[in-house]
Amino acid sequence: MALIVKKFGGSSVATTEKIMHVAKRILSEKKPGDQVVVVVSAMGDTTDNLIELATGITKDPYEYTREMDMLLTTGEQVSIALLAMAFKTLGQPAISLTGKLAGMETNDVHTKGRIVDIKPDRVHAELAKGNVVVVAGFQGCDAQGDPVTLGRGGSDTSAVALAGALKADTCEIFTDVDGVYSADPRVVKGARKMKEITYNEMLEMARLGAGVMQPRSVEMGEYFKIPIHVRSTFTTEPGTIIREDYTMEDKDFVIRGVAHDKDVAKIAVLGIPNTPGIAHEIFSALADAHIDVDMIVQSIRNVEKNVTDMVFTVSATDLPRAKEVVDKVADKLSAVGVLVEEDVAKVSIVGAGMLGNPGIAARMFGALSKAGINIDIISTSEISISCLVKRTQLNEAVNAIHDEFFPKKG
Ligand code: ADP
Ligand code: ASP
Ligand code: MG
Question: What is the pTM of this model?
Answer without folding.
Answer: 0.94
